[in-house]
Each structure stands twice: as structure tokens, then as C-alpha cells.
Design a protein that fits this description.
Elements (H helix, E strand, L loop, with lengths): L9 E4 L16 E2 L36 E2 L7 E5 L6 E7 L4 E7 L7 E6 L5 E5 L8 E5 L4 E9 L6 E9 L40 E2 L19 E2 L14 H4 L3 E3 L5 E8 L3 E8 L11 E6 L14 E6 L5 E9 L5 E12 L50
Parallel strand pairs: 1-18, 3-5, 13-15
Antiparallel strand pairs: 2-12, 4-11, 5-10, 6-9, 6-11, 7-8, 7-10, 14-20, 15-19, 16-18, 16-20, 17-19
């Protein structure tokens, strides 16, 4: 399900940043006593999928009869919904009377899973769309000992999604509603994803992997208050609200430590490409930075937009050459606090049809301007998937 609170501003630029420049200098928030970061201990790095995963095998795992296998407690399986319109069917052996967590996690930023649970006769027992973010989670008390089936698909047929799949025995020692390993400290019911963060107390209450920087404290990236001291913006391809996986972003936390502080970034985007620029802060519990503004400048330091508010902006480079631009983040004049910036690639649009190859609705053929999500595909006998739903014609199975 889409994030309704995202404020998206499309900025049509002659050049705007997509290639995320590798990490910034210094460090952000301090490592906390909870020891979070990636609570799953996973080395998996989510990215927009470009091929089918290895679990598909020779026959694929697109239906119940060809389901692949997962076992309880095994390391998370890195999978993909690819190409668009794909399904993943997976079977698992469960024991009657035991409560299990069945889940997807660690999605790419433009991915969204829907998870279903079936018994061995094909009857649907449960389903889930969103858990921490666009990941999915089912808590299930097994009704018999034997085989159950999971089906994973993207929320929309035009989406391609990478994710990790897991099955664990349910453990929630502190009864805060979050089980291991989503909960980065299962012995403290005030620590869980999106809990109220008390900045500067040395404790990571919200499971971001770091303690937030206390109000009034300059971050370690200062001085970055003008064009000459601008720092490269951090990059991620992972879902930025799955906080337990996003230590790569939160470890590069910034602050607006007073009402006159500004932070400058450089962002470079290749030709015919685009990216989302994300500022993760204002809606987080315990943060006082509730209002802020983005300013975008071209390579000559000329202002392009006039201070767009929001947490999620699409910026694009419509030109035939790479361009470097500047982004300024500043307070509204009264709020101060912390935030975590990030840049997310969404690919190219070389056929100029308005759809990018790695966006929520990815262009499945960027060499043909007539092929894109939502295109007319009434001719279902020509063998061409015009609307990027995985079939010729319209995919009615989603």
C-alpha cells in the first residue's frame, strides 16, 4: 500500500541528481547500547531486481505444485518478484500448536510485497500487506502438523520487488508487539521500530541502529553550510522505513542544530535518469524537526525550486549529459532536530515515455515509447506485453 503521507514534488530539471555519490565524510549518530542496525544480522543488500531469483529453478515457483521450500529458522532467503507479474510460491513444514512468524523483509525502496498463507488443500488462511513498511508479516498458530504454503507477490502487477523471506518461531519476550528479530531489544518494551526516540541518551529506542543526535548538537559533517562545503548525499536502494535494516542511512544522520543552520549536498545524475531524494525525520516519534524546506540549485548555484516542503521528492535529469546539482536543507525558522538524508536511483527513461526503469511502476522496455505501465494492451494476440504486467493483454491473476 502506498505511503499516503509522502509529499512528492516533481522537479523537471535540465540535470538532477540520481547517481548517489558514495558515502559522506565522518559519521552521524552514535552507536547505541541496543546494538541494532540490521537486527537480522543479514548481509543481503536490497536492489531493484533485474533477473529471476535462484529459487525459480527449471519449472519456476509460480504455483502451488511447483513451490520451492523454506525451513523454520533457516537464514533469510533473498528473492525477487521478477519479471513483473511474477509470483513466488513456497512450502514450509509447521508443527501444530506452535506460533510462527512468516514474513518478507528488507525490500528495495520501490518494492512492495503482499503475503498469503494457505493450507495443504489450497485454502487461504491469512494474508498481509504492510508491517514495518511495505514488508509483510503473518503471525500464525499452526492448526496441524504438516505442509503449509506461502505466496508472495508485488502489491501492484507493474512492480518488481526484491525481498528476503523468513519463517521463525514467534518470540516476543517483552510483549511490545514486535517479535525477534524485528525488535532490536526484546527485553525492553520501550525499544522497538518507531518507538519514541530520546535523542542523546545513548539508547536506540526506535531500532534505527544509532541514538539520535541531541537537539542543538552540530553533526559530524559540519561545516556544510554553503556550496563550497557541500557533501555528497548518502545513497540507499533499501526501503528507508524498514528502520531495522537502514543503519546505512541512519549512521549518516544530520542535524539542523539551530534555526539558522543549513546543510548543503551535491547530487549527480546521469543523462535521462532520475532519483528520489528523501529526508527521513519529520514524522518520527521524538523528533522536533517537524517542518523544513528543500532548495535545489543548478551547477551555477541558481535556485531552481523555492523551498519545497516534504519528505520525498522526485528529481530528474532530462538532458543528454550528466549534471551535478546542489540541495539545501534548512529549518522553517523555528524547528530544529535530526534527520537522515538519502538518495534512491530509479533508473533511466531513454524512450521519454515518462516511466523509469526502476521506479514503482517500472518501464519494462525502455527502448520502446509505446511500452510502459498502464499502456493500452487490448491486442492480446500479438505476443507483446505493452503494459508491463507480465502477460500479453491484461493480467487478471493479480
Amino acid at each position: 500500500m502506498r505511503r499516503v503521507y509522502r509529499k512528492i514534488a516533481l522537479i523537471a530539471l535540465s540535470g538532477m541528481a540520481m547517481t548517489a555519490l558514495s558515502g559522506c565524510l565522518g559519521t552521524g549518530g552514535s552507536t547505541s547500547e541496543s546494538g541494532a542496525g540490521d537486527a537480522f544480522g543479514s548481509a543481503y543488500v536490497p536492489a531493484y531486481p533485474t533477473e529471476a531469483d535462484s529459487f525459480e529453478g527449471a519449472t519456476g515457483d509460480n504455483n502451488m505444485s511447483t513451490a520451492s521450500t523454506i525451513t523454520v529458522g533457516e537464514p533469510l532467503q533473498g528473492r525477487s518478484i521478477f519479471p513483473q507479474g511474477d509470483y513466488d510460491w513456497v512450502k514450509v513444514e509447521l508443527e501444530a500448536g506452535v506460533v510462527y512468524d512468516l514474513f518478507t523483509t528488507n525490500l528495495n525502496e520501490t518494492g512492495d510485497t503482499y503475503l498469503y498463507l494457505y493450507d495443504d488443500s489450497g485454502n487461504e488462511l491469512d494474508s498481509d500487506d504492510d508491517h514495518i513498511d511495505y514488508d509483510s508479516f503473518i503471525e500464525f498458530n499452526a492448526t496441524y502438523t504438516g505442509t503449509f504454503y506461502l505466496k508472495v507477490r508485488s502489491y501492484s502487477v507493474e512492480e518488481a520487488t526484491s525481498y528476503e523471506l523468513g519463517v521463525r518461531v514467534h518470540i516476543d519476550e517483552d510483549n511490545d508487539g514486535y517479535s525477534e528479530p524485528f525488535d532490536c531489544n526484546d527485553n525492553n518494551d520501550t525499544i522497538y521500530p518507531f518507538a519514541t526516540e530520546i535523542a542523546g541518551d545513548g539508547i536506540d529506542q526506535d531500532c534505527s541502529g544509532v541514538d539520535a543526535i541531541a537537539n542543538g548538537t552540530p553533526d559530524n559533517y559540519e561545516e556544510d553550510d554553503d556550496f563550497n562545503s557541500a557533501k555528497p548525499m548518502p545513497e540507499t536502494q533499501g526501503s528507508y522505513e524498514e528502520v531495522q535494516h537502514r543503519n546505512d542511512i541512519f549512521s549518516q544522520m544530520r542535524t539542523l542544530h539551530n534555526t539558522s543552520d543549513t546543510d548543503f549536498y551535491t547530487v549527480t545524475i546521469p543523462a535521462y535518469s532520475a532519483a528520489y531524494v528523501i529526508e527521513y525525520a519529520g514524522y518520527m516519534s521524538g523528533n522536533t524537526l517537524n517542518s523544513y524546506e528543500w532548495y535545489v540549485y543548478d551547477e551555477n548555484h541558481t535556485e531552481i525550486n523555492n523551498g519545497t516542503p516534504g519528505v520525498y521528492e522526485l528529481v530528474r535529469n532530462d538532458s543528454s549529459s550528466e549534471k551535478t546539482y546542489y540541495i539545501e536543507v534548512r529549518s522553517n525558522g523555528s524547528d530544529i532536530g535530526w534527520y537522515a538524508p538519502a538518495l534512491v536511483h530509479i533508473g533511466e527513461d531513454r524512450d521519454r515515455d515518462g516511466y523509469y526503469t526502476m521506479d514503482w511502476y517500472g518501464d519494462c522496455n525502455d527502448a520502446n515509447a509505446s511500452i510502459y505501465p498502464d499502456a493500452n494492451d487490448d491486442n492480446d494476440t500479438d505476443g507483446i506485453d505493452m503494459n508491463c504486467d507480465g502477460v500479453d493483454g491484461y493480467n487478471s491473476s493479480y
